[in-house]
Amino acid sequence: MSFLKRIPALLIAAVVFCAPLVTAVVVLQPTTAVAQAPAADAPKAAVPAAPVVTKEAVENPYGIKAMLDHGDWVSKGTLAILVIMSMGTWYILIVKLFEQFRLMRESNEVGESFWAAGSLQQGIDGLKEGSAFRFIGESGIKATSHHSGLMGDVDLNEWVTMSIQRASENVQNRTQDGLAFLATVGSTAPFVGLFGTVWGIYHALTAIGIAGQASIDKVAGPVGEALIMTAIGLAVAVPAVLAYNWLVRRNKVVMERVRAFSADLHSVLLSASGKKK
Per-domain residue ranges for the chain? Predict the structure, then answer.
């Protein structure tokens, strides 16, 4: 009976002892579920996009445009001289190449048709007007037909030789037209550019003296102008020198053909003159 009386007290003690455990289990289960839910349902974090790098076009304040805008009449005049030299160089190069190609073509025509003609006059008439070879042929025929008067005292061989030689030298002088300009440009353009360089350095020193300090913004403009002048002078001189050497070499090839034609023509003229006598 005493044990039965103790049962309510034991039940109450068990309830009191187990109540905190039950409460802890009940509280911990929702917390764990709530803590795990965001991990399962949370959206993935977005990867940030790579920043787009935009290059801003920065205008060069010390370039050719700035030199034209802010340069004085000396620098602009020097640049104009260099531009004229460059234009003349390329003009002469193109014109002389065209003349050399024409002489080579005429030389081929002479080899194909002139010597196959029935007579010298027919061969000369078959050449184009203004042709160098026609000019030499006409000079030779004129020398044989006008060998009279005071010229009659000169030996025919020497007279024909001198006439053909003068005509050949005339053709050679025509092929050399413009080469003196190329040689002048090639030798003087670097010094013209150097003058622009010296003038730019003078402006740099003047800017330093006025500002009282050698800051980069005071020196960069004039020094950049000086370097630009140097580069332009070299850019003008180098093509002129190369063009001069190339054209001289090609003129030698052309004149070899002209001299060969002159020598053959001289022999034919003397032979024809001997037959007439």
Answer: 75-270
